[in-house]
Amino acid sequence: MHAPPVRPRTSRWSARLTHAAALVVVAGCARTAIVVPAPAPTPDPRVGLKAGLTDAGEAIWNLGFVSNVPSPPGFEGVTNSDLAFRGNYAIQGNYNGFNIWDISNARQPKLVKSTLCPASQSDVSVYKHLLFVSAEGLSGRTDCGTQGVQDTVSTVRIRGIRIYDATNIADPKYVGNVQTCRGSHTHTVVEDPKDKENVYIYISGSSGVRSPNELPGCSGTSPDNDPNSSLFRIEVIQVPLARPQDAKVINNARIFEGLTAPARHADVMTAEDSARMAARAASQPARAPRPAPMRGGGPTQCHDITVYPALGLAGGACGGYGLLLDISDVKNPIRIDAAADSNFAFWHSATFSNDGTKILFTDEWGGGSAPRCRSTDKPEWGANALFTIENRKLKFHSYYKIPAPQTSQENCVAHNGSLIPIPGRDVMVQGWYQGGISIFDWSDVKNAKEIAYHDRGPVNGEKLVSGGSWSVYWYNGNIVSSEIARGMDVFELKPSEFISQNEIDAAKTVQWNELNAQGQPKIVWPPSFALARAYVDQLERGKCLSTSRIAAVRGELSSAERAAGAARQGALTTLSSQLAGEAAGSCDAKRVRSLSDAVKDLAVVS
Question: Which H or E run contains 121?
């Protein structure tokens, strides 16, 4: 994301939208609710919403609006960035630092701590007792001062990673930093299962290379002429858990070697886009310029890397390419495949399917500061690209983009999101800046479908003023969105024709102690009757068991739930065995087997 700070007027905005499995259109301050049955209504009510910072029109479908909290003093009017989670807390980055919210009562989040420490873009991650914050701009200071840095070369400038001891989440202590040659636009925390003494960070720095007079060893020369070039690499930082202040760069992984410049679509950057971005750049905090493309070369940096440690894989969104990386040796990531797409302007981030057989890459066309969801913009632009991973190779299948056109006053493009832990399906919630948030099912990579959304009208109806969802993630039953201009939103998923209450209940059984979306955890569902019933609902939706058999299975599950001890165990064991025998005759044998396994696991814990 490259959007500048927003300067909205001070507000205490606190909407409440609570209509289940319905569309709610909210116009101005009247907050009139219109309930419309699923499926999604036409025409799409996201089109033509009223503009406004605190009183914008809103449309919501198959979601419940739980709460909104505005940014606190010192952070109001400044861009909110990414989110991380630990325990009952959401840590929200902001270009002025970060805020920590207690979301144990999601209807009334409470501010626990504000840390004023400016540096774009302040992306945040957590690991056990540690908190990490990215710093890339030219004005960030090692002492967290707000006066900026005036000198071209300065020993007080911070471009890299800030490290906090957050043992006491209500009062994190700044313990040190690691300086890097191109700063940290984003970063990814990686746990090495073979190393319990350290944690590792992959740095994605995308600004110009700083002077060696400021940080010795930095070089902006092509690797052809300087093997120690700061280009065409990512830094790997090692952080000792017992002494985080001793963190240091231990490797410069050259995962781009051998890549050539990808083909670019002729319409990737229009004159209008260039003029708009130049005007907006003038209002941004001071930041290092991005380097010019290297002659004949591929990307010189990654924007973001998502790691999936359980599979030893990572997805690198790296400017002109989507990369598949082998991270089985955490200290030495290796590229195993790369994909290019002339419809993509800027590969931004990645998300794996839970089983690791698929990956989704996003395209942040225009750096998050341009309107790329207008009716005149092609659906392939600023969208998601869906791939399967076959024999450790990327195979493209289709695109997904929000179906509702947005206005020229709304920055809108694919951005950050995460999986929702619905068993047996790949369902994702994703932020689209002023396109709002979209929940879609991409289990079928050839035919992703939207199943829920929330959207507001433009922040300003006369000109493009940055706003919307920077990132939105599912965490322990809540859907939390970092709203660039309006604070932090919390939503809840509502049952609909696309998602049953049992599927939602099964998703809520997945509880994490912490979450960084760029460190994707493998989702494991504990045994529960909700899990078994979720699979039954899916088989009914897919018509892959007869109506009578669906009713019988539901009845047997209810009877077993009312029973106890040996009676429950026996009933569940019998049902599991019966289902295993029926799998081959179903049109969805895999799901029937999953149901059988879920029932068997229930029998074991009964």
Answer: strand 121-127
